[in-house]
Amino acid sequence: VTVEPELFSPDNDGEKDVVNISYKFDDPGFVGTITIYDAKGRLIKSLLQNELLGTSGTYSWDGVTEENERARIGIYIIYFEVFGLNGEIKQFKKTCVLAANL
Predict the structure, then answer these.
(1) Torsion angles phi and psi, residue 99, rounded to 5
(2) Gyration radius (Cα) of the chain, Å
């Protein structure tokens, strides 16, 4: 699982407006959930809820919260949890920074 860019600015200037969360798994059949939290552990956005994943893919966050407001400048934790058909659970934690104009 990778997060790029780690520093993004959702200001609609065409540069680094979203953060991309990419994954690649060896086997198909994983179900995934992606949630984004602020530095204090508060839920900011649910990007994905128990959806069937392919062996690779990318999801994007545009800095918008669950309330459809722009998230504040700061550090965010991206929590990606996947469940396999055999009961296997994988958890990934990555960080990104939402900045003002870059």
Answers:
(1) -115, 170
(2) 14
User: Which residues partner with 58 through β-bridges?
Assistant: 22
* For the chain, domain boundaries: 2-98
Give yes or no for residue 84 having a pLDDT over 70.
Answer: yes
* pTM score over 0.85: yes
How many angstroms separate the CA atoms of 25 and 42, rounded?
Answer: 28
Joined together, the tokens standing for residue 35 give 């949630």
* Predicted local confidence at residue 55, as pLDDT: 95
Structure tokens at 53: 């994943």
What residues are paired with 19 via a beta bridge?
A: 61
Question: Partners of 78 in the beta sheet?
Answer: 36, 94
Question: What class does CATH assign to 2-98?
Answer: mainly beta
